[in-house]
Specification:
The longest helix is centred in the N-terminal third of the chain and has 12 residues, at 12-23. The protein has helices spanning 12-23, 67-73, 180-189; strands at residues 30-32, 52-54, 57-59, 75-77, 80-83, 87-91, 100-103, 121-125, 135-137, 140-145, 148-151, 155-163, 166-176. The radius of gyration is 16 Å and the shape is globular. With 204 residues, the protein is of the alpha+beta class. It has one domain (12-201). Helices cover 14% and strands 31% of the residues.
């Protein structure tokens, strides 16, 4: 059973209104906006090899997670940062969603979180330039959200990302406790379990 505990619950209505006002566009999926941000400083966020960086987005510590951590907590906590004035949509494939979800934005569960409590798609909408977000990375303003990637088991997780609503679609991979060799065996055994297009991106 997943043992990640929900610390805060966002308000859907206020979050969605703030998000649309900030960008002038209708967001996709669940929304994490300037109104639901946390505050902290993140030195070397965009250059640390332990982080996943895609354009203006950083997932802190997401490049690799030990399998023991994934099994113990049912996933891992990855602070999400987006540079001021930008919007990034992160999506799982429908097939992957059966075993993994994104625990960002509005979450209505109380106490322990499970995969079913998260989202398949989350749009992160940073505070506008000139608005104090309370967070920085390398001295530059970012918006920071605390959240989780929830999973039923170790997984090599491909993500599709859209930055500022513009093509092309970008790609990243979260290594949630699976070596490259192990992930390839999982794909051979059960092609339905994960979205396997990026399996070679995971490392031991």
């Amino acid at each position: 059973m997943t043992r990640i505990v929900l610390a805060t619950v966002c308000v859907v209505g206020a979050t969605a209104v703030a998000a649309q006002a900030a960008t002038g566009e209708r967001p996709h999926g669940a929304v994490a906006s300037c109104a639901s941000r946390s505050g902290a400083s993140f030195p070397a966020a965009f250059t640390d090899h332990r982080n996943i960086v895609v354009g203006p987005l950083v997932l802190i510590g997401a490049a690799s997670t030990p399998a023991a951590t994934v099994r113990r907590f049912g996933g891992q906590k990855f602070p999400a940062l987006v540079r001021a004035g930008h919007r990034v949509t992160v999506a799982l494939s429908p097939r992957t969603r059966r075993v993994v979800s994104l625990g960002y934005g509005p979450l209505h569960a109380t106490g322990q979180l499970s995969v079913r409590d998260g989202h398949r798609v989350v749009t992160f909408i940073a505070c506008r330039r000139g608005v104090r977000s309370g967070s920085s990375a390398d001295g530059q303003p970012v918006t920071f959200w605390s959240g989780f990637v929830l999973t039923r088991r170790p997984a090599c997780l491909p993500l599709e990302l859209e930055v500022d609503g513009e093509p092309p679609t970008r790609h990243a991979v979260l290594n949630l406790g699976v070596s490259r060799e192990r992930h390839e065996r999982l794909i051979d055994r059960d092609s339905r379990s994960l979205h396997g297009q990026a399996s070679v991106a995971c490392r031991p």
